[in-house]
Amino acid sequence: MQAIVDCNSFYCSCERLFQPKLQNAPVVVLSNNDGCIVSRSDEAKALGINMAIPFFQAKDLIEQNKIFAFSSNYHLYGDLSWRVMETMRQLLPPGCVEVYSVDEAFLDLNHIPNEQLHTYCIELKNKIETWTGISVSIGVGPNKVLSKVANRLAKKNKIKTNCIVVLDDAKKIQAALQQTPIEDVWGIGFSYSEKLKTYGIQTAYALSIKDMSWGKRFLGGVVGIKLIRGLKGLQSHGMQAPRTEKKMIATTRMFGRDVTKWQEIEEALATYATRATEKLRRQHSAARGVSVFLVRKGPANPDASYFTHGKQLSGYTLLDNPSNLTPDIIKAVVEIGKYLFEEGSVYKKAGVILSEFVPDNAMQTNLFVAPADEKRKKLMNVIDNMNAAYRDDILKFGTSGTHKNWKMRSERRSKRYTTRWSELCVVR
Amino acid sequence: MEFIDIDPGQGIATQQSNKNYQTGQIVQANATGFGAASDDFMERGIDLNEQLISNKPATFFFRVNSDAMLGAGIHIGDTLIVDRSIPPASGKVVVAILNGEFLVRRLQLQSHSVTLIPENKKYGNIQVAQLEDYRTWGIVTFVIHAL
C-alpha cells in the first residue's frame, strides 16, 4: 500500500511552533513579496479567507477579524520541512520515503500488513508531531491516486478521522470515490474536469467505472488509461527515484518597490545570476543558455493596479563554452540586461534563467577549456563553502552591490528561529 | 586571491615550476618523515553535534532570558539544547508553554497535577491549574554557557 503524508496548513503550523499566542487563532501566510495568501489555518478558513487571493483584497477581512498575517519565512519552513521528512526517513526502511513537495511525501508501506496499517499511521503521525511540532494528515490506498483521495477525506473530516484515512478494501474505496468531486482528483486539472462534466462525470467514482478504452479516447490517451487504472485501484505508480537533476534553473523576484535605475537592475540581475549559478554547481551542471527578462510596471489602473504586469522584455544568449562560474554568468546576464534596459521606464520584476545543461565533469575533460578555469573553479568552491558556513553571502562579486534597495518585501516575517543564532526563541 | 595560496596543491605546483630539486625533497620528506606516519592515525575532528544532539530532527535551540534556573546552572544569555523526542518525566528540566509564554523550569508530575519548579529563591513554584493552557514543549538536554 502507498501513503501520502501531508502537513496540515504547513506554513501556518511552522509559525505556531514558536508563537504560542497563535495556537487557536486565525493565521495566514503570504507569498513572496506579500502578494497572495498561500497558507491558512482552519480558523482563517472558517472566517471565509480563500486560498491564493491577493493580500490587498483580503486586507479588510484580515483586520476586522484580527487574523495574524505573516510574510513567508522560507528559512523556517525549509528547516521544519527537512525535520518532518527526516523523521519519516528514520522511522521507515531505506527508500520508502519519496519527498513530493515541501510539505508532502509519498510512503511505500508494503512492509506493513494491511490490518496493522491504521495503527501504524497513528504511531507515525504522533511521532512526527512530537518530534517536530508539525501536525500531518495521512491517506493510504493501493496506489498514489487513491492515497491522495484518502488524504483529502482525512483533511475534510479531521475530527472524525483524526486526520487518517486508510482505503484497504473495495467497499471503502467505492465510498471514498463517491465523495470525491471529479475536479479534486489528483492529476485532473480545471479543463479536464470541465470536459468530464460534459460527459456527465461528476465524481471520481463515475470516472472509475469507465473502461480503459473510454479513457484512451476521451481523456488524453495513456494518461487517461493510467488515471482510470489508478482509480480502479489497479496500478501502482511505484516509488520515484529521488529528485532528478533540473533541466532549467530560474531565479526571479518581484521588486519590493518601483525600480528605474540601471545600477539597481544590474545589482538585482547579478544577485539572481549568483543564486542560479550556485544551484547549478550544486547539481554539478554547467549551462550554455543564459536568458534574462525584465518586466515593466503596468499602466496605472485603480481597480487592479497590483496585478497588471507591464510589457515583458527578454533576451537570450548561448555561451561559447558551458560554464558554472559566477563571473561568466554575471557577465552574460549584465550584457543582456543592458541591452533590454531602457532609461525612463519603471520595472517591477526581473529574472535570470539558465538552460542547456551539460554535466560538470564532461566540461572538465573538454580540451578547449583554458587551464586557468581550474583556478577559478577552486575559487568558486571556496566562495560557496564560505557562504554556506557564514550565511548572508559574505563573499560577493562587485556587481551584486551591497544596498539591495530592490529586495523582496517581507515586512511581516517572523524570526528565523531554527537557522540563526541571533534569532533563537527566548525562554524565561 | 589569498585563498588560493592556502591550497597545498597549489603551493607544490609553484615550487615544481620554479625549483625542481625542492619538489623532490618535499616528496621524500612526505614519504619517510613523521608526516606520513601520523597519516595512519588521521581521523575526523571532534564534532560537538555528536555529543550534544542525539536526535537531530527533534532538537531545537532556545535563548535563556531569565535567572529562574540559576541553581541548575542556567544563566541569562545561555543557549539551551531542547529535544522534543524525549518523553516528559518528573525531575527533568523542560521548556514549557504556560498561558502563551515559554518557560524553563524543573517539571514535577504527580497523578493529577503539574508543577513547574524554579531553582532560584526569588521565584515561586508554579502549580498549573486544570484549565490553564499548558504544554510541555521539549526536554532540556544541555545548556551552553560562556565563561
Keywords:
heterodimer; A: 428 residues; alpha+beta; 5-stranded mixed sheet; 4-stranded antiparallel sheet; 13 strands; B: 147 residues; 7-stranded antiparallel sheet; 27% helix; disordered N terminus
Determine the fraction of residues in helical runs of chain B and give it as a percent range: 25-40%
Please identify the structural class of chain A as seen in this structure. alpha+beta
Alpha carbon gap, first and last residue of chain B: 37 Å
How far do the termini of chain A sit from each other? 46 Å
Instruction: Report the portion of residues of chain B in β strands.
Output: 25-35%
In short:
The complex is a heterodimer of chains A (428) and B (147). Helix content of chain A is 41%, strand content 21%. Chain A is of the alpha+beta class and 428 residues long.
Question: Helices, strands, pairings?
Answer:
The complex is a heterodimer of chains A (428) and B (147).
Chain A: E1 2-7, H1 10-17, E2 27-30, E3 37-40, H2 42-46, H3 55-64, E4 68-70, H4 74-91, E5 97-101, E6 104-108, H5 117-132, E7 136-141, H6 144-156, H7 158-161, E8 164-166, H8 170-178, H9 190-198, H10 204-208, H11 212-218, H12 222-231, E9 249-259, H13 262-282, E10 285-297, E11 309-323, H14 326-340, E12 347-359, H15 360-364, H16 372-390, E13 425-427
Parallel strand pairs in A: 2-4, 7-8
Antiparallel strand pairs in A: 1-6, 1-7, 2-3, 5-6, 9-12, 10-11, 10-12
Chain B: H1 2-6, H2 8-18, H3 20-32, H4 34-39, H5 48-52, E1 59-64, E2 79-83, E3 93-98, E4 101-110, E5 113-117, E6 126-128, E7 134-144
Antiparallel strand pairs in B: 1-2, 2-7, 3-4, 3-7, 4-5, 5-6
Task: Report what the structure shows.
- The complex is a heterodimer of chains A (428) and B (147).
- In chain A, helix 4 (74-91) crosses helix 5 and helix 11 packs across helix 12 (222-231).
- Chain A is globular, with a radius of gyration of 25 Å.
- In chain A, strand 2 and strand 3 form a beta hairpin.
- Chain A is α+β, with helices and mostly antiparallel strands.
- Chain A has helices spanning 10-17, 42-46, 55-64, 74-91, 117-132, 144-156, 158-161, 170-178, 190-198, 204-208, 212-218, 222-231, 262-282, 326-340, 360-364, 372-390, and strands at 2-7, 27-30, 37-40, 68-70, 97-101, 104-108, 136-141, 164-166, 249-259, 285-297, 309-323, 347-359, 425-427.
- The two termini of chain A are 46 Å apart.
- By secondary structure, chain B is an alpha+beta fold.
- Helices cover 27% and strands 31% of the residues of chain B.
- Chain B is elongated and about 65 Å long.
- At the A-B interface, helix 4, helix 5, helix 16 and strand 13 of A face strand 1 and strand 4 of B.
